[in-house]
Amino acid sequence: MKKRICVYCSASSSLEQKYYNFAEKIGQAISKNGYDMVYGGTICGMMGVVADNVLKNGGEVIGVIPERIEKENIGHPKLANVIVTKDMRERKAKMEELSDIFLALPGGFGTLEEVSEIIVAKQLSSHTKPIIFANFDGFYNELNLVFEKYYSEGFAKDTFRDVYYMADTIDDIFDYLKSYKVREYVYKW
Ligand code: AMP
């Protein structure tokens, strides 16, 4: 069975065109590198663009969508696999369960919340799956500085640095996945 990448990204339709172009390239690369995709299931913003491009290139896409959002008629119409959940919390848990890899593209608070939760889960050893930020056009540089402050001022352990990976290019994402090695983290201070 193909591995599944869970994509977290912006649902906004008000971004500069460069972000949608990037979403298109990521969708193509997911399929071409032999992965399927799991995501929030809507046609909104970058989310819809990534899903379209995975499908166009022969990949499978599973949409996991909460009841309330499904009723808003913004579900992606071309998805063969849609799972409807009770709420956003159940959706995140389902996305985690179905996925082998987590990839955060540029996004807003929703994306940040999803990727933060999956980072914390890995720190606490509830999973050992790769987590990647696609640092397109330096989008995550400032967040990375905040993370550096966590390490330098003792809010996070230095050994957690490799819980996630900041990838500067699309090739970098797939090279990282090829060489990924599972390791355990000790949460004790
Ligand atoms: P944001 O980054 O704030 O644009 O939120 C998008 C991310 O949060 C996606 O990865 C979705 O899984 C989730 N999400 C939050 N709100 C929505 C929404 N109204 N429609 C679709 N996905 C959403």
Specify the CATH class: Alpha Beta
Mean pLDDT: 96
Structural classification: alpha/beta
Catalogue the ligands: adenosine monophosphate
Indicate the overall shape.
Answer: globular
**Strands of the biggest beta sheet: in what spatial order?**
4-3-2-1-5-6-7
Main sheet makeup? 7 strands, parallel
- Counting DSSP H or I runs of 4 or more residues, the number of helices is 7
CATH topology: Rossmann fold
User: Architecture, according to CATH?
Assistant: 3-Layer(aba) Sandwich
Order of helices and strands: EHEHEHEHEHEHEH
Distance between the termini: 39 Å
Total beta strands: 7
Number of domains: 1
Radius of gyration in whole Å, from Cα?
Answer: 16 Å
Explain this structure.
This protein is of the alpha/beta class and 189 residues long. It has one domain: Rossmann fold, CATH 3.40.50. The chain is 42% helix and 16% strand. The protein is built from 7 helices and 7 strands, in the order E-H-E-H-E-H-E-H-E-H-E-H-E-H. The protein has a 7-stranded parallel β-sheet with strand order 4-3-2-1-5-6-7, with helices on both faces. Strand 6, helix 6 and strand 7 form a beta-alpha-beta unit. The radius of gyration is 16 Å and the shape is globular. The protein binds adenosine monophosphate. The site of adenosine monophosphate has 16 residues, from helix 5.
